[in-house]
Every structure is written in C-alpha cells, then in structure tokens.
Specification:
mainly beta, four-stranded mixed beta sheet, Elongation Factor Tu (Ef-tu), domain 3, YaeB-like fold, six-stranded antiparallel barrel, 2 domains, globular, single chain, YaeB_N_sf, about 10% helix
C-alpha cells in the first residue's frame, strides 16, 4: 500500500480582490473574456509595502494565483464534468480548470490598468478582465511575460469545440438607467457572454444574478438576452 504523501506547505494570503460579483453566478468562465470588468486588488497588512510592486507598472498584464474559496473540500475526484461539455462527459481533473481539485488553486491572467497608492491600504492594483468572485484570496502575483507566456500555436484540447455565445442584449432604456454608468459596459459584456449554465436553454426561464449591488433578471431566447428587471439589493 502506498503511503500518503506528507509533503505540504502553507500558503499566505497576500491580497484580496474586490469585484462586482458577490456570488459565482455570472462570473465569466475565463479571465479576459470581458475586458470592461474592473477589479481592485488590496494587499493584506503584512504585504502593503510599495517596494513589493516596484517595476510592476511597466507590465500590461499580470498572473494571479488564487483560491477557489467557494470550492474548498476535504476530498477530490480524478475526473470532473466540465459544464462546457454539457455536464455529462467526464474528463481528468488535470485536463480541466474545474474548481474541484486536490488543491483549490486558480490561475488568471488580467490586464493591469494602473497602481494606486492609497494612504489607508498602500498599493492597490486596478485590473480588468478578472474572473474572480468578490473577496477572493490571492496567494501570488506575477508579471505576464509575452515571449514566454504566449503560445499562439498551442492546442486547445476539448475546449476547441466550445461554442462561444455572443448574445444580443436588449433592455428598456429606463430600466438600464438603473445601472450606474461606470458599471454599464461591464454588465453588458457579462450578459452578452451568456452567464447561464451551458446546459440550460429554456426560453421561458427567468434567471437572476447579482452584480455590483444590483439584482439583474433576464431571459434568453435564441441569440437574444432580454433584461426583465433590475433592482437595487
């Protein structure tokens, strides 16, 4: 019988990201799909040293290593069912980006818009295109290096068959005016990328998602998403 591995390490949370998503529903399925989404990375007190980000402003993109904080569990499975394959086909966990992994770690590449120095919290990274829930703990930040990290000829595996939906978003102007102007572009981008689970296609179903303090309800019929209501939470 194989002995259980005793190798382990402790990871320190260096920061948390603040985004428009208080829950998982509606978060883009990958980073960079909705560039208009804005997030703020605020370091924990131990790491609020401006010297730690010296030179980072010269990079356009960064890597975030983070925790699937909503998917922490004591057990793991060697196979998972990717939603993009209908939720019925099993693939090896290491061939997917499923949050249900031996170690619940996520990896995202985001655009670094700017770095602000705020007296109360130190350096704050303003990023775009993040696919993280509000409050997600971050374990590490690394610069994205194009000559090493970009592989234009890479094979996409089973994700090559993924159909990317770009829906037409319709909303009554008076209803849309309830969305703060600074959040409108991001919300429209999220809706256009079809936030529904990929296996749900009922045109009569009304979906609801939380976004930037709003409750947004919508239906999807064919290639058209219609916003039916927007309320302040």
């Amino acid at each position: 019988m194989e002995k259980a591995s005793t190798e382990a390490m402790t990871l320190n949370v260096i920061a948390h990201i603040h985004t428009a998503f208080p829950t998982k529903f509606g978060i883009p399925r990958q980073s960079g799909l909705v560039d208009s989404l804005r997030g703020e990375i605020i370091f924990t007190p131990e790491y609020r040293n401006p010297d730690a980000v010296r030179g980072l402003e010269d990079f356009s993109h960064i890597w975030l290593v983070w925790q699937f904080s909503g998917a922490v569990r004591d057990t793991w499975s060697p196979t998972v069912r990717p939603p993009r394959l209908g939720g019925n086909t099993r693939m090896g966990v290491f061939a997917t980006r499923s949050p249900f992994r031996p170690n619940p770690l996520g990896l995202s590449s985001v655009q670094l818009e700017k770095i602000e120095i705020r007296p109360e919290v130190g350096p704050v990274l303003i990023v775009r295109g993040a696919d993280l829930m509000d409050g997600t703990p971050i374990y590490d930040i690394k610069p994205y290096i194009p000559y090493a990290d970009c592989h234009p000829d890479a094979s996409a595996g089973f994700t090559a068959q993924t159909r990317m939906n770009h829906l037409n978003v319709e909303c009554d102007p008076a209803l849309w005016a309830r969305v703060p102007e600074a959040e409108q572009e991001g919300l429209r981008g999220v809706l256009a990328h079809d936030p529904r689970p990929s296996y749900q296609h009922d045109p009569a179903r009304v979906y609801g998602m939380e976004f930037a303090g709003l409750e947004v309800h919508f239906t999807v019929d064919g290639e058209t998403l219609t916003v039916t209501d927007i309320t302040r939470r």
